Amino acid sequence: MINRTWLIRICLVVLTGSSFACAGFSGPEVSTEGEWQVWVDELRGLLAGLNTPDYLTAGEPKRGGEFDVNAYFTVLDHLALESGYVLDYVYYFDGMGGAPVLYVRPEAQPALATYQDYLAAGGEGKDCLWCNYLDYVHTDDTPEGYFQLTLLRILGDQFYLDWHANYNDALPICDARAIEAVLENLDGEFYQKMSARDYLRAQRLDVTPVVVFEETQVKVSLVIFTKWGGFIRETYTFSRTFPHTVLDYVEEVLLEYDCGVMF
C-alpha cells in the first residue's frame, strides 16, 4: 500500500446554537478536504487486470484463487467488518451479463457456492439481513471513514463484470488529475469524443469531496464519472449510528456525456 501523508483540513467555526460553518457551508457541520484520490486509485489497483473466469459465467461455483473482496479492507483502513463475519460473493449470470453479488456470512459458515444457493438461503428476500453487506461495515466515525464507506458502496461490485454489467462503471473523481485521466480516455477511437466546449467545462469542474457532520447523520458529497451519463455529483446521507444506512441520496448532473457504446 502507498505510504500516505495525509493533508486534511477540518474547519470548525462555532456559531450561535453550537453550529459550525466551513468552506461556504452553514449549519451544524464539519467540512473536510483531503487527498481522497489515493484511496480511489488503490481500490482500482486491486481490481485492475482481473479477468472473469469462464467457469463463473458458466454457472459453476468458485474454485478458489478468485479475487478476495476482503482485500478491500487493506485499503479502506477506516472501515471494519462486524466481528465474526467475512465478506464473500456469489456470481450472477443470466446470459446477458454477469456480476458478483456480495454478502456477509459468519466466519464458521461455509461459503455459498452459486447464486442459486444464495437464493435458496433467502438471498434477495426482503427479510434477508445478511444480503446488504454494507449494514455489517463499521466506520470509525471520521470524515475518512464515511468517505471510504461511500467508495465501497460505489466500487465494491465492480469486478468480474461481463457484457451488459459493464454499464456499472461509476468512477469517483476527486482531483484535477483524475479529470484529465478520464478526458484522455475519450479520444474518439473507441468512445465518443467530448466536444471542445465540454472538454473545457470538465477541466473547470470542482470535484473536491465534502464530508458534512451533523448530530445524528453525515453527508458525503463526491463527483463520479460514468461513460453513460457524464460527471455527476452524488450526495449520500448516512446514519452515524451503526448500521450506517443511507437515509437520503441526491444526484446532480454537472456535465452530461454519453460514450456512444451500447452493449
Task: Describe what you observe in this structure.
The protein is of the alpha+beta class and 263 residues long. The chain has one domain (9-258). The protein contains seven helices and twelve strands. The chain has helices at residues 37-47, 54-57, 72-75, 115-120, 143-155, 176-185, 196-203, and strands at 9-11, 31-33, 79-81, 85-93, 97-106, 137-139, 162-163, 171-173, 210-213, 217-226, 228-239, 246-258. Strands 8, 9, 10, 11 and 12 form a five-stranded antiparallel β-sheet that branches. It has a three-stranded antiparallel β-sheet with strand order 4-5-7, with no helix packed on it. A two-stranded antiparallel ribbon has the order 1-2. The radius of gyration is 20 Å and the shape is globular. Residues 1-28 have low confidence and may be disordered.
In short:
By secondary structure, this protein is α+β, with helices and mostly antiparallel strands. About 20% of the residues lie in helices and about 30% in strands.
